[in-house]
Amino acid sequence: MNAQIALLLGQDGVINGAIYALLALSILLVFSVTRVLLIPLGEFVSFAALTMAAMQAGKPALLGFLLVALSLAGLVMDLIDATRGGARRLRIGMLAMPAYVGVVTALSLALPLKDLGMALQALMTIALVLPLGPLLYRVLFQPIAGASALVLLIVAIAAHVALVSVGLLIFGPEGARTEPFSDSVFMLGEAVIQSQTLWVIGLSLLLIVLLYLFFERNLYGKALRATAVDRLGAQLMGISPELAGKVSFGLAAFISGLSGVLIAPITTIYFDSGFVISLKGFVGAIIGGLASYPVAALGAVALGLVEAFSTFYASSYKEVIVFTLLLPVLLWRSLAQKGVEDEK
Amino acid sequence: MTTIASGAPLLQVDALNVAYGKIEAVTGVNLKVGEGQIVTVIGPNGAGKTTLLSAIMGLLPATGAIGFAGAALNGTPIKDRIGQGLALVPETRALFSSMSVENNLELGAFRFHHRPARERQATMAEMYTLFPRLKERRTQRASTLSGGERQMLALARALMGKPRLLMLDEPSLGLAPLIVREVFRIISALRDSGVSILLVEQNARAALKVADYAYVLELGRVAAEGPAAELATDPRVIAAYLGMNSKHQERLAQ
Fold first, then answer.
1. Is B97 in contact with A230 (Cβ distance < 8 A)?
2. How far apart are CA A309 and CA A6, in angstroms?
């Protein structure tokens, strides 16, 4: 291996690592606020990538139909809850989500997306993937919010399996790849730097800074953190757990939608590719002990680098090497842990 | 129940039942808290005191009627009860331990989230005058506070929401005697500033000293009730909860 190849692999690793880091952050956020291990996160990524690819291929973006179905289910559940709680709990706000979904779906079918350019396509893709988060929470997790972590995990796995099947139905079995944001290449001395790398790193960093500001400065961000720290305390401050759940799922869907848009030009994505991608985000999150955001992000970047270099040295063992990396981390964490925490 | 002297009842609980599965923890409890009153609920461990507060707050499902400021609370979510001016400081305090004192306070005013931030800042300044210790510690994490400071923070955080009725669950629990005295001093100062208080306490003597009206809860039922001063001299209450010679508790209450 010479320096040039090392640099190329390094770029690859950092790109993938940045995307894993974003996913690790979403997993942490959702887990700490709702106790749900969001396994379907990967489907948000693959749906975003495939939707964007469908737009560029001039095919209709069918994701909207899934949204319409989910939002109608959510509306029916809202209405059932409302009739149980008396008529005064009927709120006009219940119609906000179905209305949004209707508008986005109509736009995604009516606009000539193929000719609108990359930026608008990406925007439309994220607008389509974003409501998947809150809708999934409303339909699947809100009714069982008080259940044990194991039940939540099982439902998350079921949701993942169901969404993969829906993915096959909507997008078909073929893989797809989108055009890169730009083809330009920089020379940094001897090294070739693709502008795609800069896009991914720049957008990831921007998103991380925005998230940091949201959680440190904004009252709503603080309210989400508070829900993660002490659920009872947050409830007693009037922070509704349903809202916190929907917002955290929404943020996760937004982040993974963006990750999908970022990864689509780099890798060929199939309807079931999301799982392995989000699994690597999980590994990052676990390195952070499902608690520390910076450690999880660093762990995910390290994971991306290891993956890139193992592709070079032993490409058929790539996944084996990446997931074996988890063993020493788990061993170290279990030795460092002082006692077993009881689940509440 | 004509013994409640000052004003119409702010909180009125009628025939409240709370059950954990088949086990009834609270049975047929009637309770009133008047505007600007301190009402205390005393009783032994397991009498259902915490359960009673949780049911009023909406944390536990209950049957029976709960009326607050003239409106029925049955079935309303916790968030709406807080919006109407109820607040609970639970026994565990439920602080946001990894967040700063200032963030804890700010979140206490979350129910005013649609109001301008400077109103929250103004309330926070009031809290800092009431609890100067919290101002010194405002950038520290809540987990680094001492037991007394945590109780102060829990109180201040609840007051940030400007409640009309503040429910306190064992505010003196695990605190050093001098701090207990300080906590009770603050509780009666709060009443003087117009906040009604429903106080659950094991420290019966101190609670009766500060309260206007009292209920004795035993095995989920109201065993006795009356103006606090009368209950404090009731021989049965003295025998069961105050003890003949437990003058130290009284000293704490001064």
1. yes
2. 8
**How close A344 gets to chain B, by Cα (Å)?**
14
- Test B82 with A220 for CB contact under 8 angstroms: no
A258 alpha carbon, distance to own chain's centre: 8
Whether the model pTM is above 0.90: no
Residue A341 is predicted with a pLDDT of 53
CA distance A33 to A241: 9
**Biggest alpha carbon–alpha carbon distance for chain A:** 72
Average pLDDT of span B162-187: 91
Query: Is the minimum CB–CB distance between A218 and chain B shorter than 8 Å?
Result: no
Residue B98 with chain A: CB contacts under 8 Å: 229
For an interface test with B, the pick among A142, A232, A237, A243 (most B C-beta atoms closer than 10 Å) comes out as A237
- pLDDT band at residue B4 using 50, 70 and 90 as cut-offs: very low
Residues 6 or more apart from A304 whose CB is under 8 A from it?
A12, A13, A14, A15, A16, A17, A18, A19, A20, A21, A280
Separation CA B205–CA B240 (nearest Å): 11
Report yes or no on A230 lying in a domain. yes
Contacts of B210 (CB under 8 A, 6+ apart): B38, B40, B184, B187, B188, B199, B228, B253
pLDDT band of residue B248 (cuts 50, 70, 90) is: low
Spatial separation of the C-alpha atoms in residues A87 and B75, rounded to whole Å: 12
Q: What is the pLDDT of residues B186-196, one digit of tens each?
A: 999 999 888 99
Q: What is the pLDDT of residue A188?
A: 73
- For residue range A196-231, list pLDDT tens digits in order: 888 888 999 999 899 889 999 999 999 999 998 998
Angle between helix A149-171 and A63-84 (nearest 10): 140
Å between A292 CA and nearest CA of chain B: 12
Q: For each of the domains in chain B, give its residue range(s) and CATH number, in order of start.
A: 1-85+165-254 (3.40.50.300), 95-162 (no CATH)
Enumerate residues 6+ apart whose C-beta is below 8 A from B183: B148, B151, B152, B155, B171, B172, B175
Cβ neighbours of A223 in B, within 8 Å: 107, 110, 113
Segment among A80-89, A106-115, A167-176, B148-157 with least mean pLDDT:
A80-89
ipTM for this prediction: 0.87
* CB count in 10 Å sphere of residue B177: 12
Q: What is the span of the domain harbouring residue A224?
A: 24-274
Q: How far apart are CA A129 and CA A253, in angstroms?
A: 6
State CA B9 to chain mean position distance.
Answer: 16
CA distance A9 to A17: 12
Average pLDDT, integer, range B78-107:
93
pLDDT tens-digit map of B194-238: 899 999 988 888 899 999 999 999 989 999 899 999 888 888 888
How far apart are the C-alpha atoms of B198 and B56, rounded to whole Å?
11
Q: Look at chain A and report how many structural domains it folds into.
A: 1
Whether B224 contacts B238, CB under 8 Å: no
Judge whether A217 lies within some domain. Answer: yes
